[in-house]
């Protein structure tokens, strides 16, 4: 049987009808499966087994979700910070650090990209509207009111990056974030930015271990089939 890459996906926690449940969004799983990967859920209850999970997984996929607790990057919570989940933060930060140490590839979407950045010593804007100082005179709307499957803003893509190979110098993406990477983590380079300068993508400086985007290809793929290429890129690198 053909070996298919095993992709560890840390689960979120939600309370539904009075019961706490682990969850991973269907669209995230679909992107991995369509690309030829085998998704495996990693629950925060199993945090003691992190080393084992990293060992059995060929790659890790950090998905979208709540805000990273700012104490993990050395800040107190801003009043506009949103919901956070300390169990998921601890799980994902430890997974990312372990994966980094042993050279396992990582892919992050939205919060996932922010978690990887935090694990590498970077920081986040806790709320773009109140904190962004890049080109603040023309900050664009990054939490779109439009449906998630529709694109609303452009990203400029840097040459000689994995993203450039897929999309060229400019692409139209969706945007469902009020936070973003502020100080970029060690060993990472910016691959995409919005017109206001907000960081929309990064990868390892050598283009290998880490690959992240701030937008949601798993949702946008419903109207832009080329968004599947991001998942394919991650899985093909492992295969
Ligand atoms: Mn955006």
TrEMBL record:
GO terms for cellular component: cytosol. CDD domains: GATase1_2. Pfam families: Peptidase_C26 (PF07722). One of its GO terms (biological process) is polyamine catabolic process. GO terms for molecular function: gamma-glutamyl-gamma-aminobutyrate hydrolase activity. It comes from the Bacteria. This is Peptidase C26. It comes from Liquorilactobacillus aquaticus DSM 21051.
